[in-house]
Design a protein that fits this description.
The protein is of the alpha+beta class. The chain has a single domain, classed as Beta-grasp domain (Ubiquitin-like (UB roll), Roll). The chain is built from 3 helices and 5 strands, in the order βαβαββαβ. Strands 2-1-5-3-4 form a 5-stranded mixed beta sheet, with helices on one face. It is globular and about 35 Å long.
């Protein structure tokens, strides 16, 4: 099982508490995890990545194993610790302003 931690506003939108657990068949990549997440929680479609281009939204970041994975290609395998469920994939809403 893949563990995903969503920011509070996306947990509210998906109507979940705490961490989400997903089964991802095949290679565990950002794309595979997001495909499964959006299939299971349709309200999240378009919130993490653009509906048409499938590109990550500008103010959304992905972290795992103390690394920023936001700029990795979507089909790059996630770290083994994420694939085995030992560590969660963190989806974080970035902050900006001045």
């Amino acid at each position: 099982m893949i563990r995903v931690v969503l920011p509070a506003h996306l947990r509210t939108l998906a109507q979940v508490d705490g961490e989400v657990r997903l089964h991802v068949a095949g290679q565990v990549t950002q794309r595979a995890v997001l495909d499964e997440l959006e299939a299971r929680y349709p309200a999240l479609r378009g919130t993490i990545r653009d509906r048409l281009t499938q590109r990550r939204r500008a103010f959304v970041r992905f972290f795992a194993c103390e690394r920023d994975l936001s700029h990795e290609p979507p089909d790059t395998p996630l770290p083994d610790a994420v694939a085995t469920g030992a560590e969660p994939l963190l989806i974080v809403g970035a902050m900006a302003g001045g």
